[in-house]
């Protein structure tokens, strides 16, 4: 924790030294002009890009469609041991990330970014935050980029969150060891909405939550597996009927599995959530 010596960390055969300069994790072709950028403040920069370097997001990163920078929070620490945390004021278990340390990281991360939080949100991944939803991913994708603080220990000094008007978001009602996994999930959900990242951008419009509904069931070859066949309507070639069937299936699944989403969907569309019992 705060007593660890400020020695370089190893990542495979590559040493990672402490520096307050953001580390660009592209390293290949130059990023495209005004590419969407994620700046991540973390005690574990070696955790990135992680899964973000794979598949569609990884190829888009290499192509410069988006950019990823990490800031090692330890490099902003206090004293010989680069302390980043201290005991909670008022007593209690665990440690709390210091306001002065996190504040310095925020100031460096803010260099070259617009002050408008709509154009560049600053977010702390926190279990007490508002739940991250698909609408948030769309909002972030429409911005120029985002700065993310990955929490550790018992949390962050509230003063630095208030001073920088930091938004708090959570993946759900559970606790992780730190914010790195949550940050990668948030970035993944956002980056895939950036134009040209998905091979077929239309697929993003048909996914779960895109219209407030869960996605309809999917099928592919073989036509019969373990005695179970593909629904005949999907083999009919009647695209109008197929579209109606998929919508009905999406509504049925949403009503059964996510009553909260179903009520919100019905309210937006002026429908009775207790009607349509056949769903």
How would you characterize this protein structure?
The chain is of the alpha/beta class and 279 residues long. It folds into two domains: 183 residues, SPOUT methyltransferase, trefoil knot domain (Alpha/beta knot, 3-Layer(aba) Sandwich); 63 residues, Trp Operon Repressor, Chain A. It is 27% helix and 18% strand. The protein has a six-stranded mixed β-sheet, with helices on both faces. A hairpin with a 2-residue loop joins strand 11 and strand 12. Helix 3 packs across helix 5. The longest helix is centred in the last third of the chain and has 19 residues. It is elongated and about 70 Å long. The chain starts with 8 loop residues before the first strand and ends in an 11-residue tail after the last helix.
Number of helices: 7
Provide the helix percentage.
Answer: 25-40%
Overall tally of domains: 2
The CATH superfamily of the largest domain turns out to be SPOUT methyltransferase, trefoil knot domain
CATH class of the largest domain: Alpha Beta
User: Could you give a short account of the major beta sheet?
Assistant: 6 strands, mixed
What is this structure's SSE topology?
Blueprint lengths: L8 E3 L2 E3 L6 E2 L11 E7 L12 H8 L3 E7 L12 E2 L9 E2 L1 H11 L12 E10 L2 H8 L3 E6 L7 H6 L3 E4 L9 H12 L32 E2 L2 E2 L9 H19 L1 H10 L11
Parallel strand pairs: 4-5, 4-9, 8-9, 8-10
Antiparallel strand pairs: 1-2, 3-5, 6-7, 11-12
Helix pairs in contact: 3-5, 6-7
């Amino acid at each position: 924790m705060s007593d660890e010596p400020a020695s370089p960390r190893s990542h495979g055969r590559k040493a990672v030294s402490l520096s307050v300069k953001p580390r660009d994790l592209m390293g290949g072709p130059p990023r495209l002009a005004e590419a969407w950028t994620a700046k991540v403040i973390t005690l574990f920069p070696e955790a990135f890009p992680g899964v973000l370097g794979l598949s569609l997001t990884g190829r888009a990163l290499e192509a410069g469609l988006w950019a990823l920078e990490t800031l090692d929070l330890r490099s902003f620490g206090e004293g010989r041991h680069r302390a980043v945390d201290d005991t909670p004021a008022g007593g209690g278990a665990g440690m709390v990330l210091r306001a002065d340390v996190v504040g310095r990281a925020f100031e460096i991360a803010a260099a070259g970014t617009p002050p408008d939080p709509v154009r560049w949100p600053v977010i702390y991944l926190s279990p007490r935050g508002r739940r991250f939803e698909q609408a948030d991913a769309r909002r972030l994708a429409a911005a120029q980029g985002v700065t993310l603080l990955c929490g550790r220990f018992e949390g962050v000094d509230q003063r630095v969150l208030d001073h920088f008007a930091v938004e708090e978001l959570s993946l759900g009602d559970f606790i992780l060891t730190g914010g790195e996994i949550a940050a990668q999930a948030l970035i993944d959900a956002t980056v895939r909405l950036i134009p040209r990242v998905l091979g077929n951008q239309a697929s993003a419009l048909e996914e779960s939550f895109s219209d407030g509904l869960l996605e309809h069931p999917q099928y592919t070859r073989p036509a019969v597996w373990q005695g179970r066949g593909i629904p005949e309507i999907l083999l009919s070639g009647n695209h109008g009927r197929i579209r109606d069937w998929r919508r009905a299936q999406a509504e049925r699944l949403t009503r059964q599995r996510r009553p909260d989403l179903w009520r919100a969907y019905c309210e937006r569309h002026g429908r009775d959530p207790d009607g349509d019992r056949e769903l």
